[in-house]
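Running this now, will post back.
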Amino acid sequence: MSDPATDPATATFVAHRNLLFTVAYEMLGSAADAEDVLQETWLRWVDVDLGRVRDKRAYLVRITTRQALNRLRTLRRRKEAYVGSWLPEPLLTAPDVAEDVELAESVSMALMLVLETLSPTERAVFVLRDAFEVSYDEIAAAVGRSPAAVRQIAHRARQHVSARRPREVVSPGETRAALESFQRAVETGDLQALLDVLAPEVVLVADGGGVRQAVPRPIVGADKVARMILGGLRKVPGRLTAAATLLNGGPALVVHLDGELDGVLAVRVGKAGIGGIYYVRNPEKLTRVGSETRLARR
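Update: finished.
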């Protein structure tokens, strides 16, 4: 890129980069693919005659959405052949994201999994409208549909997500406290303490991508999940350590085995306790987290 201080195209792109990345990430569930989409967006943006662009933010969102839609259709074919459970690539987030409840929820593991059940166009419309309040006219231009059709798609997608997304929203502080209790119970091997912090219908999902060992299917129920976790830890050939972080808009743990990154663990917390545990072990999805945590340690 050229110097943003002197080049209008670069300055505009840099000003909206975080927005564009989040749009792409929420559509794709992959930070690596979102970065690729931003690169493709940039290559198209530098060829645009800015003098003819009335709303530069809307135009950039339109380019990003179209590139993300193209990539999303490819990713869906790739996911059909995925080994085991699939989870989004974890994304380390800043404290201000966790404080913004709506933004934190829009990138949470739980919601990202719900978005996976939408069609590519439904997902794009939902993300642009509900997460970023983009106008129906702008969304229509981005997805190649009429504004009336986009309104119908948005309504259908919203109903679909509403029926599947967790209904309870707790504060970051409550989530942090539940995660701390979970960590203490796991570290001490206290089965009852672990059961006390888990909701009765808790779901454990682990993603090893066929590269690292992980439960192949979600495990449901507090007793099954607790015994699976504690039983699995007894078989670990090394020393596990966990450090608190902010992941996908909420408190989470970065787990190391003998000093090497093993995975990241995020939770969904409701009034009854931890209702969802999401553990990503697939090394391909840990590259970004690994590099950022190494920088933070220096």
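The longest helix spans residues 56-80. More later if anyone needs it.
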